[in-house]
Recover the amino acids of this structure.
């Protein structure tokens, strides 16, 4: 178990497997270059991460990645890291923005899950889709484990984030929060929301959701105990 201490708050959680990131280069709004991806992996392993599940966006209509281009990007990154002597377990899955298009992917058995069968899903930041329950049910029926990404960041959850997450867990979802939320990176409301989820003990996974080097600087400060929030 990893532990980090703050001036006003102590957090204790495990982060050896980073299950949510946008490190695979030039696929979405995350990392753009191979060199940046390599640097991020090296710096995260230095913080104690032992395994990666990369999760580029799959969202309609703007980020329609697929198994081929995601798998190709993973292969390039893995070969480059191995050429530099860094062999760390890594795989590619995806972060799906829930919507009607996902039902078509499920019909075609075209879902990119982790090796353990987990599928990372997210809401739009404007509102949940009316297809949420159907998507979650279909994922479970096909043997997948849905994982809800960063619920602390959804504005429509902030009225009672614990209640909303409990409802999602009742529907078969696991809950993943962003470590950067504890730094105030996304604002004070998100900071307070993630603290409530932590205190309620309903978080299944802590992950970076990292998109670039600026966030990496904050993540390092937090993990090394140099970042203080109130």
């Amino acid at each position: 178990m990893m532990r980090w201490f703050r001036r006003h708050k102590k957090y204790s959680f495990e982060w050896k497997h980073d299950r949510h990131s946008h490190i695979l280069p030039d696929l979405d709004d995350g990392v753009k270059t191979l060199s940046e991806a390599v640097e991020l992996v090296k710096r995260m392993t230095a913080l104690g991460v032992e395994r990666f599940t990369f999760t580029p966006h799959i969202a309609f209509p703007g980020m329609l990645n697929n198994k081929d281009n995601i798998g190709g990007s993973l292969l390039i990154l893995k070969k480059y890291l191995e050429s530099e002597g860094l062999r760390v377990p890594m795989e590619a899955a995806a972060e799906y923005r829930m919507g009607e298009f996902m039902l078509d992917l499920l019909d075609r058995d075209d879902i990119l899950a982790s090796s353990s069968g987990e599928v990372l899903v997210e809401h739009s930041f404007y509102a949940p889709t009316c297809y949420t329950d159907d998507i979650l049910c279909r994922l479970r029926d096909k043997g997948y484990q849905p994982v809800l990404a960063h619920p602390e960041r959804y504005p429509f959850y902030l009225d009672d984030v614990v209640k909303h997450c409990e409802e999602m867990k009742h529907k078969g979802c696991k809950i993943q929060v962003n470590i950067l939320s504890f730094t105030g990176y996304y604002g004070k409301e998100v900071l307070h929301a993630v603290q409530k989820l932590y205190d309620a003990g309903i978080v299944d996974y802590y992950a970076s959701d990292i998109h670039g080097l600026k966030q990496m600087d904050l993540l390092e400060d937090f993990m090394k105990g140099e970042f203080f929030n109130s």
The chain has one domain: 15-223. The two ends are 24 Å apart (CA to CA).
